[in-house]
Design brief:
heterodimer, A: alpha/beta, Rossmann fold, Alpha-Beta Plaits, 2 domains, 6-stranded mixed β-sheet, 4-stranded antiparallel β-sheet, 13 strands, about 35% helix, globular, B: mainly alpha, 11 helices
């Protein structure tokens, strides 16, 4: 449904997106992960026909995103990363306008307003970031579109609303929608996405099934022991330096979790914790280690 | 139609303010005209000014005002109208194109199944409608004053010829400001460039009237295509000026369509 084939757009030497390719099928949530300025929003803008590619092709439903943008936009519900709406309008005015422009369903609007409630009579300039985000979410999803492009959709939402958002997109996925979502919120990506691509400096560095991506990651654990002696002894076994009674280490092919559990049976363990979310670990693995020393 | 209605709603207040404000000013001058003529104070004051200054402000006729249009030729349709037209159309292009590009609000429209050409056409239509509203209200107010007051003699044909010429001038400036607004990502840069060109045009018009040596400068200014004094005297090349203004509209409108249609937008 959504297809990018070797899309390249260079704004300045080394700045832009380069050879970006991936596909999002109906009934799939595709996560697009990357640090700030890595090219996530630029990629979504190509799909919305806002940017012309220097090379390659972006299509939605078989329509070219640049040359047939009207047909593409008929199929797409878009949530921009930066919510900029006319401040003089009220939330209700804005939804009315979006409803007319997109031919959206009023019943869906009411349903969404129950899920993501906010004061629709408030002027947009008086709204908090969270309210504006809910307004944009309702505006995007009240269009019963087969494709959704969501740029940082939960930015500014409280945990309850984030949970409701995940429930909502799961329903949309079940209804056969193709959803492309960029986010930095790793727990929600882990919960919701079927596949994910990681982008760095405008290039896709890995694209995979999300579970395979997480399985492949090296996980970091911290264990707190009863005594510093035990910590030092265990640290020697796993080949790291202890920090008083704490030992942090990574599991991988040479040091599996099963091996660690076998070692731990000899010690008085007080606490075991995983240092970060699995997907965040993947992110740190790909983005954190290349920083110049 | 939905797009035009929605965009017009955004600029309705300033458009009405300009149209009603200028019309009230015209009405006030029309109402004062009979008493001004009776006292002769205006003519005396104008005669005291240097002829070059009067000419620069298109106030050539310092004696023998035959009707209120003679007065308005210098008091509204000269420099005042040039400044108002420039501000009016700069603000419209800024509100409808330059600012929404700059702050990203344009995405409200461009996320919908609307092409860039649809949007450009809608903006051009709104600018056209706003200009039409302004000159029509100006003309109607003067007709009402003519009908209502004694001592005001307005030649309806000349009045509407002036309004039509003014409308074409507004169209030409409006399409120019629209074209400039499509060139930049920043509202400030679009406003600065279009504003500078219009201010320069006004200055050139004034300079061209100061002496015979600088008279050629008028060919560099779009405002020389709307000269009320000549229109009132019947010496104006009305048809030629109208055709030139219309051609300018087409050139700038085509430029706006081409430029906005092909440019990348980081919104």
């Amino acid at each position: 449904m959504i297809r990018l084939e070797h899309v390249t757009k260079e704004f300045a030497p080394g700045r832009g997106i380069f050879d970006v390719s991936f596909t999002v099928d109906p009934g799939m949530i595709f996560g697009f992960i990357g640090p700030n300025g890595s090219g996530k929003s630029t990629t979504l803008r190509h799909l919305m026909g806002l940017l012309a590619a220097d090379d390659g092709k972006a299509t939605v439903g078989g329509f070219d995103c640049w040359n047939q943008s009207k047909e593409v936009k008929q199929l797409v519900g878009y949530l921009p990363g930066e919510i900029s709406l006319p401040g003089d309008m009220t939330g209700a005015d804005m939804l009315d306008l979006m409803q007319r422009l997109h031919g959206s369903d009023p019943a869906r609007r009411q349903l969404l307003l129950k899920r993501f409630p906010f004061e629709t009579k408030t002027k947009i300039r008086k709204m908090s970031k969270g309210m504006k985000q809910k307004l944009a979410l309702v505006g995007c999803f009240m269009k019963d579109a087969p494709v959704y492009l969501l740029d940082e959709p939960t930015s500014g939402l409280d945990p309850l609303m984030q949970e409701r958002f995940l429930e909502w997109i799961e329903q949309e996925k079940q209804a056969g929608k193709a959803i492309l979502m960029s986010s930095h919120h790793f727990p929600e990506m882990e919960k919701s996405c079927d596949r994910a691509a990681l982008i760095k400096a405008g290039r896709i560095i890995v694209e995979s099934d999300i579970h395979a991506l997480i399985r492949s990651s090296r996980k970091v654990y911290t264990i707190v022991f009863q005594s510093e002696t035990e910590a030092a002894q265990f640290a020697m076994q796993v080949g790291v330096e202890p920090k008083r009674t704490e030992v942090s280490f990574q599991t991988d092919e040479t040091l599996t979790l099963n091996q660690v559990i076998a070692f731990l049976t000899q010690y008085d363990v007080r606490l075991i914790r995983q240092s970060a979310d699995d997907l965040e670990q993947v992110f740190l693995h790909y983005y954190g280690e290349e920083e110049p020393s | 139609m939905l797009l035009i209605r929605s965009l017009f709603k955004q600029v309705r207040k300033p458009v009405l303010a300009y149209a009603i404000g200028t019309s009230l000013y015209l009405l006030m001058l029309a109402l004062l005209y009979p008493s001004m003529m009776k006292t002769g104070l205006l003519e005396a004051k104008l005669q005291a000014l240097p002829p070059e200054v009067l000419k620069a402000f298109q106030y050539d006729k310092v004696t023998g005002f035959n009707n209120v249009l003679d007065l308005l030729g210098g008091n509204y349709y000269g420099l005042i109208f040039q400044v108002i037209a420039s501000l009016f159309l700069l603000s419209l292009a800024a509100r409808l194109v330059a600012r929404p590009i700059d702050n990203g609000e344009l995405i409200v429209y461009l996320a919908a199944p609307i092409t860039r050409n649809d949007y450009t056409l809608a903006v051009a239509s709104v600018i056209g409608l706003a200009s039409l509203l302004l000159v029509t209200l100006n003309g109607l107010v003067l007709m009402v004053a003519d009908w209502w007051m004694s001592g005001i003699t307005i030649d309806t044909v000349v009045l509407w010829r002036i309004q039509l010429n003014a409308l074409l001038l507004l169209f030409a400036i409006g399409t120019f400001t629209l074209f400039i607004a499509t060139l930049f990502d920043e509202e400030r840069r679009a406003f600065s460039l279009a504003g500078s060109v219009l201010v320069l045009s006004i200055v050139l018009t004034i300079l061209s009237e100061l002496s015979d040596k600088t008279e050629w400068l008028r060919y560099l200014s779009v405002f020389s295509l709307f000269n009320t004094t000549q229109l009132l005297e019947g010496t104006n090349h009305f048809l030629l000026h109208s055709v030139i203004l219309f051609v300018l509209c087409l050139i700038f409108l085509t430029g706006a369509f081409v430029q906005f249609g092909r440019r990348s937008l980081s919104i």
